[in-house]
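Try it yourself: sequence plus magnesium ion, in.
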Amino acid sequence: MTPPEMNRKKALAPADSVSKLSGIGPARTVQLGSGGVHTVGDLLFHLPTRWEDRRNLSAVAVLSESDKAVLLRGRVKGLTRRRTRRRGFSISEGNFEDDTGTIGVIWFNARWFDRRLQEDTEVYLFGSVNLSPKGNLQIVNPEVEVMGRGEREGERFVPVYPSLGPLSGRMLRTIVGAALPATEVLEDPLPEDLRREWGLPELGSALRSIHEPPPDMGDSHFVALERRRSPAHIRLAFDELLAFSIGLAEIREARVRGVGPRCLVDNAMRRRVSAMAPFELTGAQRRVLREISGDLQSGPPMARLVQGDVGCGKTVVAAMAMLIALENSHQTALMAPTELLAGQHFTKLKELFSATPWSPKLLTGSLRAAERRDTVAGLAEGRYPFIVGTHALIQEALEFSNLGLAVVDEQHRFGTAQREALVAKGAHPHLLVMTATPIPRSLALTLYGDLDLSVIDELPPGRTPVRTEIRTDSARSKVYEFLRSEIDAGGRVYVVFPLIEESEALDARALEQNVEELRSALGDAEVGVLHGRLAGDEREAVYRDFRSGVVKVLAATTVVEVGVDVPEASVMVIESAERFGLSQLHQLRGRVGRGSRKSWCVLMVGDDISEKARFRLDLFARTSDGFEIADADLKVRGPGDLIGTRQWGPSHFRFADLLKHHDLAVRARIVSRQLAASGRLGAVRKNLARYHRTEFGLPVG
Ligand code: ADP
Ligand code: MG
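Structure, out:
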């Protein structure tokens, strides 16, 4: 209960330590701190999860046995406390009386009553009614509010808080109540003009209306509150999305102020560019290439995201952009998330550039020391203008002499911070990032708010759609038989396992325990093993043999998930398929069907998978549309999964939800542009940072 002096004191500011609240001593301060609450402002952002509707006063005369959650107003009489035989246990009993009648009241272990509940003190009781052993109506363990002791009492909505470390929701109700006056002096981080334009409530009053909803609120407003769709909740979600958008808008601002490396593209160069590919570009590839080439020739540095489903042919487009940079005497670098993929890009680019004067170098963690030294020196001196690599490219000591175009493949595997670390290796270099994550356009605009968006929405011709089948363990021998016949007919097979080794915690098939079974089932076909624990050169060797066809079957973990491109591969078997997210299955399935061979994806599942799992896999088997699959994944597993668990921000939003607040996210992005245009980005970011975690802006991978 709030002591009266607490409310009369000068209101504390949100930035003040919680220890300044009266009633909060060192022990409570530590407890709150362990729950991440250090300031009065932090407390204000600890929101109730629901509200008890205590607006309607009941009367003793109308109570009956089954009444739950009744609010009464009256006096407690003749309260006595007795100890029971159980040590430290006590029962307090008495009567409660209002203008309509009297009813028994009983509390267990309520030591504090003698101090607070003097005879005839006017109180509110809130609790439920039942029958005593003697058959009388009684109220058991009700909450008590003593009238005139605090402002927050009586007929109202009562907030119910989630506990915080050792602090119960009940305690927090008192503590947050004491912090509430700070909302009166809280400075709103959002300028008033924007608040008005977008119809958002002022922050202080938004917080007040969540912690202390007005008792005269209508039912529809109460429903909105309960569903976290009240204007106040929307305001909090908006601020969080805005903090995120501003981070990206600042990156964008800094970038457009710079002048990008000059590139000229004349007809002769255009011919050299189109001569690179051994095939005709699709219409979508040509359109995206035009957009990129336009960026490269305009003043500010390019910052473009190329989105396109697996197998749509992003690599060749990136290669063409890299050729333009090289021919304009700029260094160019391509960064990939795994050594395997970097190695594959290296090989592929060597092929594509074979008729040009340019040849790439490779930089990964497993390079031998001498070679690495030479490559690193060559990049700094400008001897090597063309590099492909992994995270090794963004290690601190590495320097470029004149990085003009940075390409990041499979962006969703990196964080914004890593992508920007590569950009920071040059003076305003052009940036091209590629992703196969088929997220809806508006979500992409939010997540990649600092980038322009190009979409390759067409697959190269001549692809045969991959046929997907679900098979249970009991059909395993038939599946092996099918694999043998595919291999005999010249096909190559991936078998992907969710685990390297068997684990007690997970009921899933593991690579090491099953590879022998696979070997004996497939007779003389060479089975290669590939996983992340192998040394870099071992991995390279296995992968090379699979590409060349010496190895017919690649038993692997999800290291083959991103980008791996072996056109002869025609079957993808996925073990314990129910363990994977649909988007991940989609990436894996994208490894086959890349050539003209008829291709298959076989999802192996346990005999006893759940209905729900079966439903998801059925949906996956029926469609090859990445967007539809992403949508299903989004619904089942939430956005965290789709945008990569390594990614940061959005999965850490406290109030915002990218699915639910789709439109709000779009608005936040617009507002961040408005703030940029009026020169207020920095100021508003600083203000928001007082209440919201700002690492949203620079997600770390
Ligand atoms: P992703 O977009 O998934 O990175 P890749 O760039 O790896 O796809 O391309 C997939 C395969 O399609 C590669 O083998 C590539 O050579 C081939 N390819 C790309 N564009 C075309 C095209 N226009 N016509 C035919 N094949 C193409
Ligand atoms: Mg790719």
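One thing you can check immediately is this: The first helix runs from residue 4 to 8.
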